[in-house]
Predict the structure.
Amino acid sequence: MKIAFPTNDGISINPHFGQATHYLFVSLNETGQELSRNLQPKPSHAPHGPNHHHPHAAMFEPLKECAVVIAGGMGQPAYRAITNLNVQLILTTEQNIEAALHAYLHNTLENIPALVHAPGHHH
């Protein structure tokens, strides 16, 4: 099983999916034992204004091979794109990847759907 975490540093989950620069992929065997980790640059998502129109498909392509994506907040378009991949999406306020992975493996990682925000949301 492969789990993806949007991150900038491979240690923390970026609280906004669209602003993450990398994905950390963690591969596990059937018993939940870690097999490998791979930090890869996320296909680019340039900063944009409220009226942007460009394809986001490349950003989600690497997630197709994953069983689970564990992320912080994200916009509705990203949420729809990931759920359309038939990948389990868990949105969490836990920013430490190790803690989130441990909680997921012990079935204690809470999914918080309210972390999906409307388009045009500003930080």
